[in-house]
Amino acid sequence: MVGQKEAKHACFKGLRLRFKEDIISQLPDPLICHILYHLPLQEAVKTSVLSTRWRSLWLWVPRLELNSQDFTDLNAFVSFGNMFFNSDRASCIHKLKLTITIGEIDNDASYVSSWIDAAIKRKVQHLDLHWCGVSNFFTKPLKLYNSETLVDLKLSEVLLDDANSRALFAVSESRQRDLILTVPAATTTGEIVTTLHLEDNCYPNEATFEKLVSSCPVLEELNLIIHEEDTKTFRLQSRSLKKLNLVRAYFHFRSSDPGVVIDAPLLCCLSIYDYASESFIVNNLESIAKIDISLLFGSGVFDERKRSNVHSFLLGITRVTDMTLCANTFEIICGQYSELDLLPRFGYMSHLHVTSRISDLKWLPTFLDSCPNSWFCDYEKMISEEMSFPFVPQCMLSSLEYVDFKVRILGLAAEMKLIRYFIENSAFLKRLTLRLVGNSARDNYTLKELLRIPRGSTNCEVVIL
């Protein structure tokens, strides 16, 4: 009897296992690959030992993130890559990321080019190549001009020569001439790169970068991080670019004065962190919705040349509607314009965000007077010092509706003076937002001071966070 029960139990157990196995085995390959797509590479490869059903399924996953540091040696790294790219499968590769570290992997990495060629043939859409090294760059030719599907490209520490950039993103040699001479009004998604990320790459000359960008006729987003030792002037011309993020760190030694020139009429979002370029020029800007500026216009004393560079830059961005200024840039811009008629007018700007020292806020009326239609201002940082405001700008009398102090208010004399300036003089102010420190005694004192301030607008609401 006991033996029959054990046999029956074993039978049921076997049926349950077979039932589970049947459910998995009946899943279609695309669904299994979709599951593996969301697993780390190591976990996806481990599934190959489950059964013959799973032995090669991971090779069909349309995504690969390959890092040389995950392998014990060069042979293991190359062998694994060859197995993936040289398989007999005919499926597509949606996303490919290669991270190769100098020192662990040799410089003569011709296999990388063959892997990328294989990915291009399998219609890769997102390609990320990062060649990690202190002063080494990947120099093998990349035949990306054969791609008909690449829409997102990221290159880090790669040497781009003229052969690459001349026709880097042309769909094919037969269409290359058409793409260079004309910019199509619409392009099927995937035919040409729309997002480009370039980080610490090496450009032998200025023309190389210009050709690289111009070979992307439907480029919409560019993230450009310039290597700290690169002193060239970067000229960017694009009839399609909408979003640009540019980073150029400060460096002490240079043989020439670097700069940036942007000609992108459709640009609507611009972020600049550049403490190296002597000049920064924006031309032919039709409209720009948002700009975030951290500029020093080079090092050294402020002379007539720097003054001219600042003025030229401001003239190029007068159509901005939303502007963010860091403390250093605000000081540089306002420090030279003692006369109001010298500062360009920002007639389209409605939102101004300023990070400033209290000592520099003496220039605030001058700057606000050049923004007659501003209705929202906020302030990020203040340091306690005495200050004075000699006049009230036009926007405070006609359009300013919202003021937001991002810094926590301590109730110091300089802080209260600035708050009083806005509350008393803003005729159409609807809301002024403050953040207190959370100290009950100090906050109570600050609140009492606020209640004593007469309001220039009967609709003004003071919001305490």
UniProtKB/TrEMBL annotation:
Q: Name one Pfam family in it.
A: FBD
Residues in domain F-box?
A: 21-57
- InterPro entries the UniProt entry points to: F-box-like_dom_sf, F-box_AtFBL13-like, F-box_dom, FBD, FBL13/AtMIF1-like, LRR_PRU1-like
Q: Where does the record place a coiled coil?
A: none
PANTHER family attached to this UniProt entry = F-BOX/RNI SUPERFAMILY PROTEIN-RELATED (PTHR31900), FBD DOMAIN-CONTAINING PROTEIN (PTHR31900:SF25)
Protein name per the record = F-box domain-containing protein
Q: Which organism is it from?
A: Brassica oleracea var. oleracea
- Origin organism lineage: Eukaryota, Viridiplantae, Streptophyta, Embryophyta, Tracheophyta
